[in-house]
Each structure stands twice: as structure tokens, then as C-alpha cells.
Amino acid sequence: MMMINRRMISALQQVGPRFLPFADAATRDLPLSRLLRLSLFQVSVGMAMVLLTGTLNRVMIVELGVSAWLVGLMVSIPVLIAPFRALIGFKSDTHKSVLGWRRVPYIWFGTMMQFGGFAILPFALLVLTGNGHGPAVWGEAGAALAFLLIGAGINTTQTAGLALANDLASAETRPRVVALLYVMLLFGMVASALVFGSLLHDFTAKQLIQIIQGVAVLTVVLNTIAMWKQEARNSPLASEDAATISFGEAWRRFSAAGRAKRLLIGVGLGSAAFSMQDILLEPFGGQVFGLSVGETTWLTATMALGTLAGFAISARRLGKGGDPCRLASVGILVGIFAFAAVIFSPLLGLVSLFQTGVFFIGLGGGLFSVGMLTAAMDLASSGAGAMSGFALGTWGGVQATAAGIGVGISGMLRDAVSDLAMHGKLGSATTGPAAGYVTVYQIEIVLLFATLAVIGPLVRGGKRSTRQPGFGLAQYPG
């Protein structure tokens, strides 16, 4: 009997790492319980992203009657912080504290900024829609401040949190550890989208305010649990005697890499192409197909599931030595066909075609993001040497900046084209509510073709010369 039990235990130990996700990411120094606790900061970031780019923008445009261009500018305000992601990461690398902490202070400051933004937002929305006291311009200013604080908090928390994960993980498990953290981000997005959708099935302003306040409290609770006893105090790297280099020197090392310029242009164009639809997806479903708030919130979850599928496919392909730029090109092609499906869905009157297109937008975006990120990691390790963390932070700044600019422009384009269509200036065939949305989707397809042209010369024939030890998403920008 004892022999049978030993054999069963041995078999389970061999099966575990293969069939249990990220079971091999834990080590003796970083057990799975501590790793999962650390990943809670990604769950809070996922909640904030769904609320800003999913539920809240649809409610503001459709239910509250706020102009799409104004909502687009509001949602894109956090992009003002994106260019500073490299600086945030660099500062957390070189931070010298009397308490011996480098990462924890930045995670805490980011958490407080998120909480402050969510605390201001409900009151700003009340004034903005005329249900509060004071002119609407005060509501616009309050909403802008709230979005700025939330965006700054997300960028600071995520950058310092991923850096802390890199510090705690061993060199062998670091890619899988940070990959787990990013999957937890998607889990936070999917779970919060489902919860928000069910709570807002029958929309009321009171329910929206309660959700925003609940997210503010949960952000502090989850991030506090995530930080608790994670970073050791009195680290030699945080001492006054620790050697550091200047930010300018770090930038010169990165910019000297050979393929950096083309890769940066490619990731900028592609990120803008996949992000322009972020604030239009749920309003499109509400205005064109008449979907409820709960039904359109499910679209965000559908896209997140498609992105997760893209990660799984990417892990398999890159694990076999596939070319990351080729993988990114496949993602672009998937995105082109996905946007085409969304464009044709109102013409054919097929909600299912629209929902299918949403899933494949997420799939294509996942393939593109992972492929370009892996190319950046290869570039950083070959050209930037020890500054790979800074290189990927710069990558994150370009990605987030391009995405934010795309989101801001998309709202203005949608409003301008819709106004022309309503006045019959685009012909009798384009008088419906879909005209403005379809124009943005067509521009996204053009940008995807441009991205394909940029990264095409980077695609190598055959497989990579060096097989990566594992698939990871270290320092991936949120």
C-alpha cells in the first residue's frame, strides 16, 4: 500500500508542472502562496482598466449623454504619464531609502493616487451631467483630475510591482513569474467585467457610484496585501553607497541598439491600431445593436479571453523557437480580418459576427503584443546589456503613449463623422449611427497594414538562433 502511495505522489509531482499553470514558477525562496499574494496588485490594475476603458466610457457616452470626444480625451489623459514609465522604473531601480526599500514606496504612492482618483470621480460625474451643484466645467475639471490620478497610479504601481517581482524571482523562474502576473491582470479584467456587467444590468447612477467607490477601497486592500512583507528592508541596492548611472547614460545605451528605431515605430503604430477601438467598442454595441450595459460589458471580457488565447498560442510558438516578429505579423493579419468582421456586422445585422470579431481583435492584439515584446527583450539583451529593464520600460512608454493618442483621436473622429452623417453630407447610405464607428475601424485597418510594412523587414527566415529558456512577459506595459 505504501509503495502505491509513493508511486502516486511521484506521478503527481511529475504531472503538476505540466498541467498546472505556472506550477514551476514557485521556488523555495518564493513559494506559490507568496507569489499569488504579490500578484494581487495586477488584479487591482485590471479592475481600474475595465472601469475606465470599458464600463465607464460606455455609460458616460450612452446613459449620461457626454460627448464621445470629451470621453475620449478623458480616457486618454493617463497617457500623459506613460512617457515617464521608463523614468519611474529607473527611479525605483536607483531609489535610496532610509528604510532600505526601493519598490514598496512607489507601489504605495501609486495605490494612493488610484484611490484619490476614484474618490473624486463620482462627484465629478454628478457635476458633469448636471445632477450636482456648480457649473459643468467644474465637473469636467474634476473628471480630468480623477483620470489623471488614476492613470498615474496605474503606471506607477504596475511598473514598480513588476520590478519587485523581478527582484524576488530567480533568474530561471523570472519569465514565468512575471507571465503569471500578467495573466492575473487579465483575470482581474475578466472577473471585474463580469461583476460590473451583472451589477449594471439595470443601470442607475447610484449603482455606478457604488461600484466606483468599491473599486477604490478594493484597490487599497489588494495592494496592501500584495506589498505586505514582500521586499526586504536595508537592501544594499538602496543604501547611500550603491553605485548608479544617470538617466541620460541609460538612454544613450538603449538608443545605440541597432534595431530599436524600427521596432519602436512598429510597436507605436500597432498599439495605436489595436487601441483606437477601446472606448468605442461598448458604445458601438449599445447604439448600433441596442445591447444593454451588462451585455456590452461582456464584450470587454470576450476581448480579454481572446487576448489570453493569444498568449497561450504565443507561448507555444515562441517556446519552439519561433520568430517573434513573424508572430506579431500573424497577429496583425488576424486583427485586420477581425476589424473587417466588425465593420460588416451592422450591414449584415449579425450580432454574433460582431462578437466574434471582438474575440479575434483580442487574439490578434495578444499575438502582436507578445511578439513585439519578445523582440524587445531580444533587443535589450543583445544591445542594451544590463539596461534591459530600462529598455523594456522605454518600450512600455511608447506602447502606452501610442495607445492613449489613438484612444483620444478615435473619439473625435467618431463624433465628427457621425455629425456629417446625421446631416446627410456622406450620402444616403451612411446616415445611421454606425458611420462614425466604422470610419475609425477602417483607419485601424490602414494602421495595421502600415505596421506590417514597418516590421516586415525585421522578420527573419527560419527559427531564432538561440532558444529561450521559457516564455515570460517581464516588464510588459499594462
How is this structure best described in words?
With 478 residues, the protein is mainly alpha-helical. 73% of the residues lie in helices and 0% in strands. 53% of the residues are buried.
Spell out the blueprint of helices and strands.
Blueprint lengths: L1 H18 L12 H7 L1 H24 L4 H9 L8 H10 L9 H25 L7 H33 L5 H26 L5 H23 L19 H9 L4 H16 L5 H8 L4 H27 L4 H25 L2 H34 L3 H35 L11 H22 L23
Helix pairs in contact: 3-4, 3-7, 3-8, 3-9, 3-12, 3-13, 4-16, 5-7, 5-16, 6-7, 6-9, 7-8, 8-13, 11-15, 11-16, 11-17, 12-13, 13-15, 14-15, 14-17, 15-16, 16-17
Described by strand count, sense and barrel closure, the largest sheet is: none
Structural class: mainly alpha
Shape type: globular
Rg over CA atoms, rounded to whole Å, is: 23 Å
Percent helix, as a range, is over 70%
In percent terms, what proportion of residues is strand?
A: under 5%
- Compute the average pLDDT: 75
Q: Count the helices. How many? A: 17
Element order: H for helix, E for strand? HHHHHHHHHHHHHHHHH
Distance between the termini: 51 Å
- Per DSSP E runs of 2 or more residues, the count of β-strands stands at 0
Instruction: Give the uncertain stretches in residue-range form.
Output: 12-21, 462-478
Give short descriptive properties of this protein.
single chain; 478 residues
Summarize the structure.
With 478 residues, the protein is mainly alpha-helical. It has 17 helices and no strands.
